[in-house]
Design goal:
By secondary structure, the chain is an alpha+beta fold. Helices cover about 50% and strands about 15% of the residues.
Length: about 280
């Protein structure tokens, strides 16, 4: 038997590129589906597929026919039922780094709107908390507030956090260039924080940044200082240009001397207690 007969099993350069592209697409799809109803649907379809092939092997014609009908019309039903998830997936595509590079002006206007709003609120001494969604979906927290679909602007953000307005106590969630919800309830950090000056907004910002990759901005009602929670760290006394750099995705700037980093405490490996923040 000649080895030439198995030459087709040796992948070429184009085959390797195609395999890598398909693998990446599947990885991103599974990452997006994790923790959503769509993942439960895929698991259900997988189980039905096993039942279908089992019925084919055992020649259960009635079961095979019924499952065939389900598979035929199930795709249309899934499109209707999971329309919100599909819309979110398309919006994620529009918010990818490549697309954001092509739409740099729009991204810059969103950044400037957020920075200007935080400056206004800081001058007024009005408390505020804004969560800018990253790769991890914030849909669970959107449901706790009032849904919106409004373009990000400094005027709108300032109005939402005006004292005694109906939504000023909750958090605003921003996805791309849209405010998708206001008055949202965020999870508080589960770790003890030694600094007693940190209020509920700061603890909620820390809590969300521990669970997701969102950038959470807090304006203190007591001190009027702007803070940023990211990756479980709370950076206080953030300047406008630093806020711009973070929102633009640039390297985390050096914190000015007057700022304080408050890390979320982590369990100690060699001691039976929790390390407290500095």
């Amino acid at each position: 038997m000649s080895l030439d007969q198995f030459r087709f099993l040796i992948p070429g350069f184009r085959d390797i590129i195609e395999i890598l592209i398909v693998a990446y697409v599947l990885y991103r799809a599974l990452l997006f589906l994790a923790g959503t109803r769509a993942l439960q649907l895929l698991i259900g379809l997988f189980v039905l597929g096993l039942v279908y092939f089992g019925a084919l092997v055992l020649k259960f014609n009635m079961i095979t026919s019924l499952l065939g009908v389900i598979f035929t019309y199930g795709a249309f039903a899934a499109i209707v039922v999971f329309q919100p998830e599909l819309r979110h997936a398309l919006s994620n595509l529009g918010r990818s780094r490549a697309m954001q590079f092509l739409a740099g002006e729009g991204t810059q206007s969103v950044i400037e709107g957020i920075v200007e709003a935080t400056e206004r609120l800081s001058r007024r001494g009005a408390g505020a908390i804004l969560a800018v969604e990253g790769e991890v979906s914030l849909n669970d927290y959107v449901e706790s507030g009032k849904g919106m679909h409004a373009t990000v602007s400094a005027d709108l953000l300032t109005t939402i956090f005006t004292p005694y307005s109906p939504l000023h106590d909750g958090a605003v969630i921003i996805r791309g260039d849209e405010i998708i919800a206001a008055g949202c309830v965020l999870p508080l950090t589960q770790f003890p924080v030694e600094d007693r000056s940190l209020g509920t907004r700061h603890r909620a910002a820390l809590g969300l940044s521990e669970e997701t990759d969102a950038i959470v901005i807090v304006v203190s009602e007591e001190t009027s200082k702007v803070s940023i929670a990211i990756r479980g760290l709370l950076h206080r006394g953030v300047m406008p240009q630093q806020l711009r750099d973070v929102l633009a995705g640039q390297t985390w700037p050096s914190i000015v001397d007057s700022a304080v980093e408050v890390p979320a405490p982590r369990p100690s490996r060699d001691k039976g207690h929790v390390e407290r923040s500095r």
